[in-house]
Design goal:
Structural class: alpha/beta
Number of helices: 6
Radius of gyration: 17 Å
Shape: globular
CATH architecture: 3-Layer(aba) Sandwich
Distance between the termini: 6 Å
Strand order of the largest sheet: 2-3-1-4-5-6
CATH class: Alpha Beta
CATH superfamily: P-loop containing nucleotide triphosphate hydrolases
Helix content: 25-40%
Largest sheet: 6 strands, mixed
Length: about 220
Amino acid sequence: MINPFKRLRKSGDYSASSHKPNIRKSVLEENFSRLDHVLDRSEKKTIAIIGQPGAGKSSLLLKLTNGQCTPKPVIGQGTDATDWSLDPQANLLYDYNGSLYIDTPGYDTLAHPLKSYRDYLPFDRFDVILFSVRGKIHGSDEEMFESILEKSRRTSSIVLIRSYSDDLTDEEKASIERDLQLKFRYTRYNIPLIFVSNRYGEGIDELKKVLEHKNPAKDDLS
């Protein structure tokens, strides 16, 4: 059986922006293209955190890097502080322990429309994608998950994260698990689900163990 998640060696440039028509890009799209260019020349392991606005992505980055990544992310109160839509030289990468982390802005907002992610975010440059959700799952979340699968499942490992799991009971977790399975059918692709609490540290050690491997959760797919 062919491993649908196996990272392929690229024989050409199949990046998100390599075949785009010569049209004027937004600042966000220019930053996505710049990220593609930078990662194309990097030999480091790349870990992208993608998620809803306010899904705890920057706090998760701090937890995973023990607060030692360079530079430090800006933590917003209840919403995303990460903005790639204004500054064409916005910081895109966080370096820690030989890996590059990408803390992407929350998608499906006026400043960060979903279409720009689908068309220009270089999904295929990421070794690992952490897809973080919280609360109610919206149509935009399902669309983003589909984009992740379509554009990166042969080049990246994917982990589904349910953030803000601070005080969930086992019964509540089981209910959320069923809902996420209904929306994403993630078990169909052998994608692990990890409940994470940035406040109490739940799931962080488990996630760190996953990230220790270049291609986590792929051994059972061959």
